[in-house]
Structure formats: C-alpha cells, structure tokens
Design goal:
Elements (H helix, E strand, L loop, with lengths): L2 E6 L7 H12 L5 E6 L5 H6 L5 E6 L13 E2 L1 H6 L4 E5 L2 E5 L2 H16 L7 E4 L3 H12 L4 E6 L8 H8 L2 E6 L3 H10 L2 E4 L7 H6 L7 E4 L8 H8 L3 E3 L1 H17 L5 H18 L4
Parallel strand pairs: 1-2, 1-3, 4-6, 7-8, 7-10, 8-9, 10-11, 11-12
Antiparallel strand pairs: 3-5, 5-6
C-alpha cells in the first residue's frame, strides 16, 4: 500500500490529509493512504531510517523542518538556502528534501494581487525570524524584492533568518520587536507585510498600525482567520492574501513532487474551506 504522511508535533489537527486526499481524488489516484504521524526531533532519525519503498513522500512541519535535513541524501538548493525542508520525497532509495513553503507564500501574494487588481509589491516587512520567515525571504525574491525589513524578538539561534538571508543573497534590515517605533514606521511604509508570528503575537502592532489603502498583508495564521492584524488591514482598505492560500499552494507543489502530476488547487481549496467550516461549526481546535 502506497502511503504519504504529514509529520511533526503536535500533528493531530493538521489539515494536510484533507487537501492531499482531495488532490489525489481529483487526479484519479486510488489506493493511497495519507496519515498524520506524530514525530519530534528525538523520534525523527529512527523514523526516517525506517522509510521503505511504499512511502510516496512526507509533508514536514515543526519541529522537524531543520532536524530532518542532515538525515536526507539530497537537498534541493532552494531548501538548502532557506535552511528548512517541508517536503521529503523518496526515489530509488534516495531521500530528497524540498521547500514548497516558498512557492506557497509567493503564489498566495500573487493571487491576492490578481483578485484585488493591485500592483505587485516592491517593498516588504517580515514579522518573525525562524523557518517560515526564511521561506518568506526567498518568496520575496521570487516576487522581485531583494531588500526587505525583518522585525523579531531576537535574530540568533538555529534556523535564523539572518543566515538564510546570507545564503539567499538578499539584504535585510533587522529591527527588534521591542523597538515599537521602528516597527511601526516599517509596517506603515512597505507595500507588503508578511506575519509569520503565532496567533495573537502581532496584536499590539495591529492596534497601532496605520494601514494604507492597497497595502497587502499575508498572515500565515489561518485559524482563527479573523486576526487583529487582518481586521486592521480590511478596515483600512488593505488587501489580504489568505493564509489558507499559502497552505493550498505549498501542498499543491508537494503533490506534484510526490506524484509527478499537477493537481487542481481550486479543488484543494474547496476541500480545505469545507473542513475549516466543519471544524468551526463543531468548535474543533485547530
């Protein structure tokens, strides 16, 4: 039985099975299974070593995005530059690592601009300094932005966005989150704000922020969707790129890597929205 899975911890409420299974059904792939598998940095080496030919691929989430890298045979140059792997694909006994978060972020911003009829952004502020922020820097490069500002509580440690910026060849201005005036100036002046912070962490900024009409926000938090940052942008005529779109587009790229076929992301988005609605009605935690 061919199978794939999303791995990480905690993993119980991951939406990856919903959108991957929807893609498989649309592509006519039968007989595959997609699982949620709890894995942390301690259990990961043994799990990766035990993968067999029946595994079609893995979606990798925290805390395994960096920890999985030394366990792989080959890492795609983009994933190496970002410093994070979110996709593992076994092929002929070789384990290859990729990063599809980059295309997920870039595609979500492009879709929002297309739907709103706004110009592509030329400047950006990234909130946060870990794996997703590093992917955001690479995505900004794909959008043509090679110099941006990053605001974070700290910039050192493993998976630092500073190291990723050096590998990617992009320039960043570093602002400490505690310097609220500098953060406010940056957030008010850029075309695009990407928040990679946990839910509610950006609420203090949302209360102070002066959003310009047409300014773009991508908040990677999609549950709860109605964040304070989102409300600030919507009330001022800003453009919101959906965190769910990031999830769908990165998963679509994963499906292509695992199956060799391009799925219909519209079908995946419908399945995701239906599941989010069901969980909301049932009061499920995400």
């Amino acid at each position: 039985m061919t199978w794939a899975a999303v791995i990480g911890s905690p993993i119980e409420h991951s939406l990856s099975p919903v959108i991957h299974r929807a893609a498989w059904a649309q592509l006519g792939i039968d007989g595959w299974e997609y699982h949620r598998l709890e894995q942390d940095t301690d259990s990961l080496p043994g799990f990766i070593a035990g993968l067999g030919a029946d595994c079609a691929g893995l979606s990798v989430t925290m805390p395994c995005k960096q920890a999985v890298m030394p366990l792989l045979d080959v890492i795609d140059p983009l994933a190496s530059a970002v410093g994070a792997v979110n996709t593992v694909v076994p092929s002929s006994g070789v384990l290859a690592g990729f990063n599809t978060d980059v295309t997920g972020i870039a595609s979500a911003v492009r879709r929002a601009c297309s739907l709103a009829g706004c110009s592509a952004p030329s400047s950006a502020l990234v909130l946060g300094a870990r794996a997703t922020a590093s992917s955001a820097l690479a995505a900004l490069g794909e959008l043509g932005i090679t110099s941006s500002t990053v605001a974070a509580r700290r910039f050192g440690g493993p998976g630092s966005v500073v190291a990723a910026a050096s590998r990617l060849g992009v320039t960043i201005e570093q602002i400490l989150w505690s310097d609220s005036e500098a953060v406010d100036r940056a957030a008010s002046s850029v075309d695009l704000v990407i928040s990679t912070l946990p839910a509610s962490a950006a609420d203090p900024l949302a209360e102070r922020l002066r959003v310009r009409e047409g300014q773009i926000l991508l908040d990677v938090v999609y549950s709860p969707r109605d964040t304070a940052l989102r409300r600030a942008f919507e009330s001022a005529g800003g453009v919101v790129a959906e965190g769910t779109d990031m999830l769908v587009f990165q998963a679509g790229a994963q499906v292509q890597l695992m199956t060799g076929r391009s799925p219909d992301t519209g079908v995946m988005r419908e399945a995701l929205e239906e599941e989010l609605g069901r969980r909301s009605r049932e009061g499920s935690s995400l």
